[in-house]
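job 3f2a | input accepted
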Amino acid sequence: MGDASEEADMVDIPTLKTEIDTDPLARGYAAMNDAAVAADLMTIYRDAPASSQALLEYLTLERFHTGSLYGRLRMVANSMPVRDGANTWTIPPLPIGLAGADVAISQDHIASAAALLRFVDTDTALTVTLLDSRITNILDDLALAGCEAIGAADKTAIQALSQSQQSRASELGLGIVKEGHVQIARAQ
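job 3f2a | predicted structure (188 res):
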C-alpha cells in the first residue's frame, strides 16, 4: 500500500476528513471501516453535470450550415417580427423544419432558442444539469411545440450529456482515495 504519509500527499486530507466527519450524503461512514469508506468514496454513483462545451460540441457538428442544429437555433433566436397590419406583428415562417419545411415560430420559441444559445455561447466553462426542469422546458418548446428547431432525438441526446456518473471522491476533487488516506483523515 505504500507509506501513509506519501499517500496523504496525493489526497486533500482536510476535505476528506470533513466528508467523513459530516457525512453530508448520509452514507454511514461512522459505521464503516477505513477500507469500506475508501471503497464507498470511489464508487461511481453521483451525477456529473454537463459542461457548456459538451453541449456546444453536440450542437456545432456543422455549426455554420443553416441546416445544422446550431444554425436552426441561431435562425430562431435571431428572428424579427414584421408588421403584418396596422397594429399586428408576426414572425415569418422559417425553413427550419426537420425536413427543411417552413415552420411558424412564436416569441416563446425565440426566447427559448436565445436562452439555450446564451448558455452555449458563453465564454466561461459553465456546468449545468441538462435534466433540469428549466432546460427541459426550453428543449420541449423547441422540439415539441411545433417549432421543430430540434428534434425529439436531439432533445434526448442533449439530456444524455448530463447522464454521466462520477465517484464522490471525484466530485470533491479528492483524486484516488485509499484506505491509508481514510486512516490519516480519521486520526486528525
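job 3f2a | The radius of gyration is 24 Å.
job 3f2a | closed
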